[in-house]
Amino acid sequence: xxxxxxxxxxxxxxxxxxxxxxxxxxxxxxxxxxxxxxxxxxxxxxxxxxxxxxxxxxxxxxxxxxxxxxxxxxxxxxxxxxxxxxxxxxxxxxxxxxxxxxxxxxxxxxxxxxxxxxxxxxxxxxxxxxxxxxxxxxxxxxxxxxxxxxxxxxxxxxxxxxxxxxxxxxxxxxxxxxxxxxxxxxxxxxxxxxxxxxxxxxxxxxxxxxxxxxxxxxxxxxxxxxxxxxxxxxxxxxxxxxxxxxxxxxxxxxxxxxxxxxxxxxxxxxxxxxxxxxxxxxxxxxxxxxxxxxxxxxxxxxxxxxxxxxxxxxxxxxxxxxxxxxxxxxxxxxxxxxxxxxxxxxxxxxxxxxxxxxxxxxxxxxxxxxxxxxxxxxxxxxxxxxxxxxxxxxxxxxxxxxxxxxxxxxxxxxxxxxxxxxxxxxxxxxxxxxxxxxxxxxxxxxx
Length: 447
Ligand code: ADP
Ligand code: MG
Prior knowledge:
Shape: globular
Distance between the termini: 75 Å
Bound molecules: adenosine-5'-diphosphate, magnesium ion
CATH architecture of the largest domain: 3-Layer(aba) Sandwich
Low-confidence stretches: 1-13, 268-284
Number of helices: 16
């Protein structure tokens, strides 16, 4: 390649913007309460030749955003431009790899892969040729006539990739494509994909990948957009300049992972009283959605933190590695502990509070007592439930009494889950009882 060529191609690359989002907002209306704001003022750009990661917590609106980009959902407000034109429906040139593989069980590998081309009106012979190419490329040679149920999870996801690649999309969207796979299979597939990308063998221009796995994002992406929750928006952007193949043990790699952990755990200003939310811990009062977390998970983490090698304080990536948890699984537990003042999060570190230390050292009855005190003090819904039970002559109250009140602030699912979590926590602390059959809180069998 001569110099003129290089120059013109790099100029072209710099100019070739594929996707632009501006002021994208997505709300879902709710019958008698304010709209649920899932995405607010989202802006991003994708140019040719890059892998961009969108890193955010579960429920922050990442899948919603990918559906908007792919043209499956029209945003409530804002602009989505694909190659300079407003997106109004599914765009040619964009394809998607799903977390759940989404294969048709009654079709063979080859038929599943060919399917995308049928919709484009590609003639049969060419369909076949291109599907076979995509299958070979992704390492499934010889499995053309197998059915999905005959394949391992990793191979099924390879079919998912082949199906997305066969249309030669300019932009491939990936929605947590490795998160349903076991650790080793996921790593093999990531590495294979990156190798193909580096060798220029993928028939695509760019990738937009959604993930909640920080290491995965640092391993694969050229740029990471950190997505905030409630509502979802791009809160920060981090360029990853490490050359491929990247080494997870490289100090520069570790530093980036640490920095991103720190950013993602930075505490939001507490004085700001939040609007209705869904998911996460933003907000105060009862308008605080809680994830499904057992008290075993909470006490297990307190114990792990209290013991060597951490002795009360840990670097988050180290803690995640030692517990074999991903950030997406670790964060909700840490936030629950932070909420209840058993731990403090700061700049990528977590530290047990004095109460957390006491909990770790206590016997079971004292643990329960301490837990109940903190639950009442810091989880307003538990205090509300207890107060209602104390005030009612029957000392009973139905599940719906609380879930419906929460639905003014969050989705029905989140409300259900939040009440469920507080039931589990309240039972552990013996703050109240709950009868599953009658779907009723009570004060008589607090266990
Ligand atoms: P993520 O992929 O980051 O986990 P999602 O985009 O799946 O997040 O969901 C974000 C929020 O939007 C969740 O609170 C979810 O309940 C809500 N949501 C998604 N789709 C709908 C819908 N069709 N109607 C109402 N709420 C929805
Ligand atoms: Mg999702």
